[in-house]
User: Fold these one by one.
Assistant:
Number 1:
Amino acid sequence: MSRRRGGLMSDRLKYELAEELGVAGTVRTEGWGGVSSRNCGNLVRLAIERAERAMM
């Protein structure tokens, strides 16, 4: 199975969402692998909410 190159969310948006959730420090020190799966799910939820608001 091939891996996707690039993502749907820009790095800027990911860091903005991480700041909003309070996990940006973890991302800076440990990388995205240091963020819990629960918080990753919360990042996705926030991104979906923003996308839905933008579509309205």
Number 2:
Amino acid sequence: MTEKREKTYTFAWEGKDKNGRSAKGEIPSASIALAKAELRKQGINPSKVRKKAASFGTKKKIKPMDIAIFTRQLATMTKAGVPMIQAFDITAEGMDNATMKDLITNIKSDVAGGTSFAQSLHKHPKYFDDLYCNLVNSGEQSGALESLLDRIATYKEKTEALKAKIKKAMNYPIAVTAVAVIVTGILLVKVVPQFEEVFAGFGAELPAFTQIVINLSEAVQKWWLIIVVGIGIGLWSLKRILARSQKARNSFERLQLKIPIIGAILDKSAIARFARTLSTTFAAGVPLVDALDSVAGATGNVVYREAVEQVKEDISSGQQLQFAMRTTGIFPSMAIQMVAIGEESGALDEMLDKVATLYEEEVDNMVDGLTALMEPMIMVVLGTLVGGLIVAMYLPIFQLGSVV
């Protein structure tokens, strides 16, 4: 039987701290009495505690980049010797996102109450995954939280930058398709019917190409609502299937790697994520076999996830990482050679970091190349569509002389 959680509210408070100075802030709690008790535990003598009014506006979502910014700011302040609790206050104050501010306040309250930083993060799995929490825990246990936070911040920033590039690469084909569909729809619904009225008085059979376009125009005018709803339902169904079925997701991810240009970008980004995650966890002192658990989920593709799981099994049986990677048959020779150098020199984390940087730069260059390629491609696609429809409409006019 699951334990029922108490509803938490946000309370604004004013009072005096341990040194007798005036202070104010916010604290999450189930009631005013519990809020006052929590404040006293933190050495604050509250004079006013009031429940904040509920906001009926749409709450701004916390994005992964918000977590990256929070981590970087926290890493910078703790390295500068700022106490953790004070660092939370400063970081929260600088956040524009009210939801993110509330999250930091909740974490601060837990830490101030005696909970470890890692345990307080575990309470928010939506924003802090196991990798993040485990690295923070390693930092707390080893007494090197400042350097670990710096590594986590770098990892999050690089990962989010890579995700942004992949998103940019995926958006261009979608944009080309969307623009092509919209332009074609407008021409079929608004332009072609005008020509159809003119052709009605010709008294001659229309060319096959023109007749096909007219039939298509009539179908779109008659069934446009069903077509739009059908496309909407189809996209929604696909999204639901991918969200619910692991098998469908795996098939989709395998298919993505086979798409020209896009597949190569996704391939290199998976290698970059593999190297970046493994470098971060290994440098934090996490055993290689345990680190590979986090790496498998971070690659972002089922092909590499299965390959990493195979690598983990091989390493558990005594193989070196370089040989285990080679056995999978999907890692490039460059990455394997650099890992081999890292293993032999005892600087595996540094070499993995270089592998990650190398492939991140390749992804960056490929996305820039795709951007440059897509601009003329859009012109070609639209030119072909518009030109084809114009030719179809003017063919009967070219043949008008034979009718007269």
Number 3:
Amino acid sequence: MAVTNILIYIVVILVTFILYAIKKNFEYWKDRGIPYEEPHVYYGNAKGFRTTRHMNFIIRDFYNKFKNSSTPFSGFFLLSKPVAVVTDLDLIKNIMIKDFNNFNDRYMFFNEKQDPLTAHLFNLDGEKWKPLRQKMTPTFTSGKMKYMFPTIKGVSDELSTAFDKCLTQDDNVEIVDLLARFTTDVIGTCAFGVDCNSLRDPNAEFRAYGRTIFTNLRHTFRPIRMFIMTFPRMARKLGMRIIPDKTHDFFINVVKETVEYREKNNVQRNDFLNILMEMRKNNENGMGQMTIEEIASQTFLFFIAGFDTSSTTMSFALYELAHNQEIQEKLRKEINETLEKNNGEMTYEATNEIPYLDQVISETLRKYSVLSVLTRMTQENYVVPNTKHVIEKGVMVMIPVDAIHHDEEIYPEPYKFDPDRFTDDEIKSRHPMTWLPFGDGPRNCIGLRFGKMQAKIGLIALLSKFKFSVCSKTEEPVTLDPKPFILSPLNGVHLKVEKVQC
């Protein structure tokens, strides 16, 4: 009996201590005089995240509540983790550019030993990220883009053929999957040197992995996934993984077999994989010889960052053009005029001579931010300029990209699709941190040139031949899938597609 009482006392003391620790932790922002919202005991301020609500809606609501507060950032809790959500544009500029050295980590999970595909450029911390970024930058120069252009152009011809085949069956077309098959074929060729053929075969292996790569994670138990995301360093110390074995083995083997074949047969290609193979041969910047796993992780990043982001951007662009026929006709006219100047041929130079296409893509990325937030972590205590407030060492900082893009004080009528927001004069009139689909500063998206070129080529190929309009299956508005981090339509995008009458 005495033993039982002692055990009860121990349990009561432990529970009391835990509840006290949770309560004390949730007073983190209050103790520092930072405005915040009372958190839920488990979810923090992220209730519904990845179950019923996409993060962009959660942060958009939070931003609108606190954007006019007296402090340049507000306090948020991701589970029990304190997060500084920055609402001041000048502070965002400091974090992304001026004081970047104190904010060069993204606070993302990676595990080089047990989960090597996660140890790619997007996830790596500053010390490992910087030399790798320097080495990989030449991959995405304008010269390399021009070299890859014919390959992408060839795949865009396949895209047009795929749309033609769809029209023989039904003029109501689900475009998201078709565009994802287009970008899968592009990335497969430019990154892996592999002909994926997913436009011809919807069940091709690369496309099958692409369909589930953001949703088929190792852990189905949500609290474990949330733990890994909220405490990535602790998860790494515990040897945790997120990539399923089947996905890991597929991408490792594709890279291994391709590298072995090229080395054995002395095959040289001016593509992403070839550059990584060259990096493997030397020891620049003290990185050491790259392993197959390291090459695979960077190629894996090219795949996940390139196929879905570009395909959803194109899907959202066509969705908006279907609802705005005048904009669609204006863009089609500009595309056709440019093609006529080039004897009907799409060239690399021609894609950069269609300013209205750039405006349409920019407005699409404003309204549908592929990444709704950007994250950084302080390396040392950071005194916010012109204030007494400090963002303490190790605190996660969140840049609310989607919320800024929908701020009516920055973009009047933010839910209206208006490419004229991105004329040269309009861009110059706004703060540079009001448009951040690719981030900014030293850690901006390294593949932005490639992503934009891919989207341009796909849209030119389609709009020059097809007209898009709404149909009975078109969702209004599009329902977003709450599970992936990137913005993605839950039920696809259904549009009426007709051949343009010449």
Number 4:
Amino acid sequence: MSIRVLIADDQELVRTGLRVILDAHADIEVVAEAADGAEAVALARSIRPDVCLLDIRMPVLDGLAATRELAGPGVADPLPVVVITTFDLDEYVYDALRSGARGFLLKGTGAAMLYEAVHAAARGDALIDPNVTVRLIETFAGSAPAPGVQRAAQPATPLTAREEEVLAAVARGLGNAEIGRELHLSLSTVKTHVANVLTKLGLRNRVELAIWAVERGR
């Protein structure tokens, strides 16, 4: 079945470009477009798309607030959100990731990366543009967390040696398939290790895992 995608961006030209790229794939269907965050949240709650592709800077309700509404800590049934924006080391990008965004892409990213990010979000994984992963982590690791977000303490149950290896790979921005190839593990085994580390650290996603690892010199 096709992955149903909602696109939200205040620029019609950007929305059109994203739709053209995604509609070129038979396994992706753009089911809705929104010009602001409030419209995006209303549409997303109504049609429940498989992935929400949100710009950060939008009128009425910006992409940060929309991300919290759709994927934040208090959301009972969160929707997968991928943030796509220009990256200017803005602290609000950090806020968006801490608020539940599952992926992060630059607007100048290639069509292949956009396709991969949508698929990753739909299957419960995450993808950050590798061109900004290290820069993102270095910029925001050690900075103040977003309001209401608590830093993860050291795990009560220590990580295993293999979990430490997987954590280090996540901190370098590797996806599950890449980790599997590097560590000679099956995809399902990698997913299990990532899930176990998330549980032990009390974190929501692999973005937080990466930042946690860098903050502690892992």
